[in-house]
Amino acid sequence: MIDIALYIALGAVGLAQLLAMARLVIGPHVGDRILALDTMVINAIGLIILMGILWGTQIYFESAMIIAMLGFVSTVALARFVLRGDIIE
Amino acid sequence: MLIDALIAALLLSGAFFTLVGSIGLLKLNSPMSRLHGPTKASTLGVGSLLMASMVRAFAHDDGSLHEVLVMAFLFVTAPISGNFIAKVHLHKLRGKPDLAVLPQGDSWASTSRE
């Protein structure tokens, strides 16, 4: 039962990643692109957790943690740069 | 068996909310309402997937709570990044013209109303 749910979840999160990438490509403004990148980072965390469940290991937890931190920092830096033209004033 | 059903339900709900967040990001038609789509993916979606991972780790061999770290980090940082993206929309899109000059003193400005 877990296997079927896991494959359905992998397909759904992969489809969500593709939809977010479509918004990243067509997004009319730069804020939409930053938001789409943020969503793609969140979906990547979900995919990595699903792969950790699938292969039955706990190693992928650290990579999920690091991707969460880097995604937050990169989102804030991008928004800051677009808004102010500078990251650290 | 019951544990398996719980893990499967958590996985399916997490996948559902993640997909709903991305569909909302793609389908909503103004930038400010697009901002509210992926919040479901970052709270309910990834939260449910992490809960499933935790329940599975407790059910099989070695349970640990370190997935709570990722969950807490996402819950803390999601409003901050949302606020920054909303500021980009407000200032760049709605054309509020009073973007400040870079501060020379010790103030940290985002508008010039200081």
TrEMBL record, chain A:
One of its GO terms (molecular function) is sodium:proton antiporter activity. GO terms for cellular component: plasma membrane. InterPro entries: MrpF/PhaF-like. Keywords: Antiport, Cell membrane, Ion transport, Membrane, Transmembrane, Transmembrane helix, Transport. Its main location: membrane. The chain crosses the membrane at residues 6-26, 35-57, 63-83. It is a multi-pass membrane protein. Belongs to the CPA3 antiporters (TC 2.A.63) subunit F family. This is PH adaption potassium efflux system PhaF subunit. It comes from Profundibacterium mesophilum KAUST100406-0324.
From TrEMBL, chain B:
The chain crosses the membrane at residues 6-29, 65-86. Keywords: Membrane, Transmembrane, Transmembrane helix. GO terms for molecular function: sodium:proton antiporter activity. It holds the Pfam family PhaG_MnhG_YufB. It comes from the Bacteria. InterPro entries: PhaG_MnhG_YufB (IPR005133). PANTHER family: ANTIPORTER SUBUNIT MNHG2-RELATED. This is PH adaption potassium efflux system PhaG subunit. It comes from Profundibacterium mesophilum KAUST100406-0324.
